[in-house]
Amino acid sequence: QVQLQESGPGLVKPSQTLSLTCTVSGGSITTNYYYWSWIRQPPGKGLEWMGGIAYSGSTYYSPSLKSRTSISRDTSKNQFTLLVSSVTPEDTAVYYCARERIAGSLYYGMDYWGKGTLVTVSS
Questions:
Q1: Fewer Cβ within 10 Å of end Cβ, the chain: N or C?
Q2: Residue 80 CB contacts under 8 Å (≥ 6 apart), including other chains
Q3: What gap in Å lies between CA 30 and CA 18, rounded to an integer?
Q4: What's the mean pLDDT in 67-88?
Q5: What does the pLDDT average to over 18-28?
Q6: Do the beta carbons of residue 97 and residue 25 sit within 8 Å?
Q7: Above 90 in pLDDT, residue 14?
Q8: What is the 3-state secondary structure (H, E, C) of 100-112?
Q9: Which residues contact 89 (CB under 8 A, 6 or more apart)?
Q10: Quick one: average pLDDT of 94-110?
Q11: How is the chain classified by DSSP, letter by letter?
Q12: 80 near 99, Cβ under 8 Å?
């Protein structure tokens, strides 16, 4: 059973950098065809896909967040990390990490999610 767990500060000040880590157990982040994504949900709004990192280490980002977002991984710890710079109160959200499976042209969706962690941007 794959499990994902988000961790990081629950409060970040405006203009600072938000940093979250997702720790994966029950499966390796380097296993072929799995992609590891970050998704967020602001209060009262829908889910927003932010970006992710592939099993190969390649990264991909939402165009709307690309300039402020960086995703990396530590394969020795089976973790991947999200950085969002220059945060504003609009970045307040529940942040989730999730696993996606893509094989060629086939998309299998996000099958495992973390429970989510609330990050509030406030001074």
A1: N
A2: 21, 22, 24, 29, 36, 53, 71, 72, 73, 74, 97
A3: 25
A4: 97
A5: 97
A6: no
A7: yes
A8: EEEECCEEEEEEE
A9: 14, 121, 122
A10: 92
A11: --EEEEES-SEE-TTS-EEEEEEEESS-TTSTTEEEEEEEE-TTS--EEEEEEETTS-EEE-TTTGGGEEEEEETTTTEEEEEE-S--GGG-EEEEEEEEEEETTEEEEEEEE---EEEEE--
A12: no
Contact criterion met (CB below 8 Å) for 114 and 22: yes
Contact 119, 51 (CB under 8 A): no
Read off the pLDDT band of 88 (50, 70, 90). very high
Q: Give the pairing type, strands 11-12 and 117-121.
A: parallel
> pLDDT-based confidence at 25, cuts 50/70/90?
very high
Instruction: Give the rounded percent of residues in the chain with a pLDDT score beyond 90.
Output: 93
